[in-house]
Amino acid sequence: MAVDPIVSTDWLAERLGDPTIRPLDATWWFPHESRDAAREFQGEHIPSAAFFDIDAIADTSSDLPHMLPAPDVFAEAVGALGVGDGTTVVVYEVAPPRSAARAWWSFRAMGHLNVVVLDGGLAKWRAEGRKLESGPASVSPARFQAKRDPGLIRTLDEVFTALGAADVQIADARPAPRFRGEAPEPRPGLKSGHMPGARSLPPSELYRADGTMLPSETLQQRIAAAGIDPDKALIASCGSGITACMIALALARTGHDRTAVYDGSWAEWGASPNTPAAIGA
Asked: Which residue ranges form the domains of the chain, and what is each CATH number?
């Protein structure tokens, strides 16, 4: 059984001050939400935390949003946040649950397995009256070595090939109406629907209303109800590679920690004239 990738606020509170523990605020907002996560971090964050900017720690040369950067770029960026090779990274976000899973997966995709997600994030931490800080992060740069793990990352060509493979499944984290092609995509120019044979597993099936993740037993039931066999290879997809990582995180909580993520997701698939799309359930 893999180690639970989710830790409680009690767990983190007991370890604050440990120099080998680094909380990272990985909050990310959709453009239409008109919020500035970096500025909000300076207003309020967990002590000793730094800000993990998903849009900046990315391949900024790509036309696709927040794609994984090259290992050396990732290493330099997170090293500047005080994350070293021996650091235990605890990622969190403001609310709702969305992007902390992306940061968790990014570290794992770069070979750093000592990373966990804070259950309930900053909202739970704040509600419990725990200590907070304001202002810029106060960290000392650290040496971080990144090595890309190709087993956790999928490209368009690899997903296209997987469509015809009986032993590979695709799980889509987009809201069900978008999956079925009933609601338009928020990004202009994208086709509607889903990859043929994909299964719908939106994050609402994985989390409680308070933003904490469901326990392993319940997750197993929800995953099975979506028609997904966790013992088979799984590729997670979504709109732009953010919420797909929530599927990977949920699978990891059930002991299956090798879910691959299609980094380009529907932002890439839906824009290509050569990719098929199915409508309906």
From this structure: 6-148 (3.40.250.10), 151-269 (3.40.250.10)
